[in-house]
Write a sequence for this structure.
């Protein structure tokens, strides 16, 4: 009773502090993590990507069949020699401060995005210039044909090519921006953002949506509520009770134990929006000892027991799949070659003995291994406890660095060695992006330009380019097998299985869109 009373008081205080005007339609949600960074180019944190989709737009979106469709673009053409793309912006595009969106804004945004994103980096290998031809026309000139330009600009996952004002997009790609002005259907109420408590978005009254029906991230992005609040509640039990009582409308990142409770709650629906699901990623830091040694990285593979991880983090076997494929099981590119040690049913004692021998043979001398642990994440928290246990049993000198997820996504940017650095962090990627080695950001082995962990391997980079240039689906499949083999040889990252996580929401909500690996809040109406 005391807990519910305290919760009621906290919700009352939260709503009183929100500042919503009388008569406004407010959509209150609890997301999987608190928003700590408003720069979805600087970080690949999923919650920052969700923020990006609230306030920014992209030149192209994807429809319900995951096919690219024009979004900010009115017309686009490709020259006969397949070397020049011309993009003309549609009418009515304005920034939240009322200024018009220009081609210079677009060119600067693409250039900043391409420095951080795997798809952008790959695209720029084939690109000579991106520049404004006039106020509303952008021209992209290639050095050789690259047939995935529109696909890269349309991807909704990892790091989408969000378009920002030139003055913001001119910020160094390795420095976080602090200005959230975009041109999307919602604007961030920056003065009401309280990290650890709430993030507020307001309907953009000047936004002119496309005329097509909304589907995926394409079509008419119509804000059907006046205000969206991402509120932070203390635990899964409190959040579950709040949704059941109608105190919140939408709950993402449900802890496994609470899914059956929500399924039986009156007035609540539980659905899976992204059937491709998520794939676990255990990233090792290639820069520093002991994981600068590929043999030590390979030794860790012997300790991985996906069934134990997925059982702890997901629980229900019908919602997870044991999978050793870097390019996702069930996709045309999926192969498990080289992952046998992770997916085979091997007794624990034998698994640990193999790992100890491999570590000794590789020259591991007890160097400390810092494992980043996000105690507030419904999936990565139980995964970290399992991984810590394995490492200790294998004789690894593991040190758990416990914090919230927001701190983890900041700390993983650090390249420095020592107690403030890191050796392992845990995350996930979606099935939509993971099936494409050119776009899946952890696939990059481009040294300093690679994703956190900074693998550096010329063979992998050549294979990724070979995959892009492959003339047929069958040829790409053959390259994908070689990519899988090389990934296991260098331990690009350690996959720890695939799973699906549903969302829960009040049955009074209508128009929730299914977007791979992403939650969007336009088109949602409260009835």
């Amino acid at each position: 009773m005391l807990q519910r009373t305290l919760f009621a008081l906290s919700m009352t205080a939260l709503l009183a502090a929100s500042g919503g005007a009388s008569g406004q339609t407010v959509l209150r949600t609890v997301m999987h993590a608190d928003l700590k960074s408003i720069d979805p180019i600087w970080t690949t944190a999923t919650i920052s990507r969700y923020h990006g989709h609230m306030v920014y737009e992209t030149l192209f979106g994807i429809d319900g069949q995951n096919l690219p469709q024009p979004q900010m673009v009115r017309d686009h053409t490709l020259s006969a020699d397949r070397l020049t793309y011309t993009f003309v912006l549609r009418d009515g595009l304005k920034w939240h401060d009322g200024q018009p969106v220009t081609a210079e804004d677009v060119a600067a945004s693409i250039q900043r995005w391409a420095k951080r994103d795997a798809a952008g980096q790959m695209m720029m290998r084939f690109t000579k210039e991106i520049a404004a031809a006039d106020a509303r026309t952008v021209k992209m000139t290639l050095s050789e044909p690259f047939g995935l330009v529109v696909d890269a600009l349309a991807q909704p996952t990892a790091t989408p090519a969000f378009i920002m004002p030139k003055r913001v997009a001119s910020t160094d790609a390795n420095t976080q921006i602090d200005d959230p002005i975009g041109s999307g259907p919602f604007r961030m109420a920056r003065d009401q953002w309280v990290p650890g408590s709430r993030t507020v978005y307001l309907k953009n009254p000047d936004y002119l949506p496309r005329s097509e029906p909304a589907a995926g991230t394409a079509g008419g992005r119509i804000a059907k509520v006046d205000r969206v609040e991402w509120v932070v509640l203390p635990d899964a039990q409190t959040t579950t009770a709040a949704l059941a009582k109608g105190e919140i409308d939408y709950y993402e990142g449900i802890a496994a134990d609470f899914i059956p409770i929500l399924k039986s709650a009156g007035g609540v629906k539980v659905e899976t929006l992204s059937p491709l699901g998520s794939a676990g990623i255990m990233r090792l830091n290639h820069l520093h000892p002991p994981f600068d040694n590929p043999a030590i990285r390979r030794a860790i593979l012997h300790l991985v027991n996906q069934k134990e991880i997925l059982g702890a983090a997901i629980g229900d076997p019908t919602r997870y799949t044991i999978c050793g494929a870097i390019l996702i099981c069930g996709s045309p590119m999926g192969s498990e070659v080289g992952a046998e040690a992770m997916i085979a049913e091997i007794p624990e004692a034998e698994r640990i003995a193999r790992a100890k021998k491999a570590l000794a043979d590789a020259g591991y001398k007890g160097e400390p291994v810092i494992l980043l642990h996000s105690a507030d994440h419904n999936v990565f928290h139980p995964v970290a406890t399992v991984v810590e246990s394995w490492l200790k049993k294998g004789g690894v000198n593991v040190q758990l660095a416990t914090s919230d997820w927001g701190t983890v996504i900041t700390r993983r940017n650090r390249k420095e060695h020592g107690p403030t650095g890191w050796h392992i962090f845990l995350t996930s990627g979606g099935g939509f992006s993971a099936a494409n080695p050119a776009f899946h950001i952890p696939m990059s082995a481009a040294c300093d330009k690679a994703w956190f962990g900074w693998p550096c391997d010329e063979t992998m980079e050549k294979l990724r380019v070979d995959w892009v240039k492959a003339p047929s689906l069958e040829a790409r499949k053959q390259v994908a097998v070689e990519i899988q083999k090389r990934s296991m040889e260098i331990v690009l990252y350690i996959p720890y299985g695939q799973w699906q996580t549903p969302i829960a929401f009040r049955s009074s909500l209508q128009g929730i869109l299914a977007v791979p690996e992403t939650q969007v809040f336009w088109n949602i109406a409260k009835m």
User: Anything to note?
Assistant: The chain has two domains: 23-233+506-526, 278-499.
